[in-house]
Design goal:
The chain is mainly beta. Helices cover 0% and strands 34% of the residues. The chain has one domain (35-270): Jelly Rolls, CATH 2.60.120.200. The protein has strands spanning 35-39, 48-49, 59-61, 66-69, 74-78, 86-88, 100-108, 116-123, 130-137, 165-170, 179-186, 193-199, 203-208, 211-217, 229-231, 240-241, 248-249, 262-270. Strands 1, 4, 5, 7, 12, 13, 14 and 18 form an eight-stranded antiparallel beta sheet that branches. Strand 13 and strand 14 (211-217) form a beta hairpin.
């Protein structure tokens, strides 16, 4: 099992973004020149999730990922169901560049029973289709505490329970094993928290409510993948079906092992390592 990569010196700074100390915490994020995709989840009906970014990478929800009140306007509420997900079709613009940021507002109802719970990622069991994955650490429970045994998809990444901590996995472009990074602090359930992970080719950083939480040294690039980007769950995109007018995951195992239970709002991907985020005093 992989150990977490060694912590870098806290004085290192590699980041992009606009000038100033923090983004405005009272406003939703904007699409700017380094935005790849921005999914606001403001739709009140239907499966479409419009992308406010420059490439219009519209997403589609499964039937159990529903509209709800968000941190700003609407949000997507996810539940313990294999049909609770949002997918963004593969697009060249989603290929990880030399620098990267994934951020969102999250309000979890609980932490997952198993290794981790994905927030968003391009990562599947299909060989050669692992790229990156941003999520929450799980409780690593086993029966009878867990409802079912874990399928073990992330056993080689997660060596111990890290409930509520941010996790970021990447597959290096050069041949080698995947790397896992874990935040120092856990987030809390039942409240909105802004979370972000950045990578500039040298340093992985986690931010919680606008403040730098931890940083890790890792030199290299993230491997590209042809996988669909999946939000709020871990499903096999090869078995997605639109039969009957609704998008469904038709994989043989319908147990929602890694489904997010809670809400996401304002998910933004960027092709730079941002350093300015909403500062929130809880």
């Amino acid at each position: 099992m992989l150990a977490v990569v060694a912590l870098a010196a806290s004085g290192c700074a590699h980041g992009g973004g606009a000038s100033g100390s923090h983004e405005n915490r009272t406003q939703a994020p904007e699409a700017d020149s380094v935005t790849v995709g921005l999914w606001r989840f403001n739709e009140t009906t239907g499966p479409r999730n419009g992308d406010s970014g420059p490439y219009r990478l519209d997403a589609t929800s499964g039937i159990d990922a529903r509209s709800d009140f968000g941190r700003f306007a609407g949000a997507r509420r996810f539940q313990r169901s294999i049909q609770s997900f949002v997918v963004v079709p593969n697009n060249p613009e989603l290929q990880p560049p030399a620098a990267f940021t994934c951020e969102t507002w999250i309000k979890p109802d609980e932490f997952g029973q198993y290794e981790l719970t994905p927030i968003a990622g391009c990562w599947t069991e299909e060989p050669g289709h692992q790229s990156w994955l941003f999520g929450l650490g799980g409780q690593l429970l086993r029966p009878p505490l867990a409802q079912l045994p874990s399928p073990g998809f992330f056993n080689t990444l997660v060596s111990g329970p890290v409930p509520g901590r941010l996790v970021f996995a990447l597959m290096p472009e050069e041949a080698g094993a995947p790397r896992l990074f874990v935040s120092a602090r856990a987030i809390r359930v039942d409240r909105w928290t802004h979370v972000a992970v950045t990578y500039d080719g040298q340093i992985v950083k986690f931010y919680i409510d606008g403040l730098l939480d931890s940083q890790y040294a890792f030199l290299g690039r993230i491997r590209s993948s042809l996988s669909t980007m999946v939000i709020g769950n871990y499903i096999d995109p090869r078995y997605l079906s639109g039969f009957g007018g609704n998008l469904r995951a038709e994989q043989s195992d319908q147990n929602p092992y890694y489904a997010l239970v809670g809400s996401l709002d304002e998910l933004r991907l960027s092709n730079t390592a941002r350093s300015l985020f909403p500062k929130v005093v809880q």
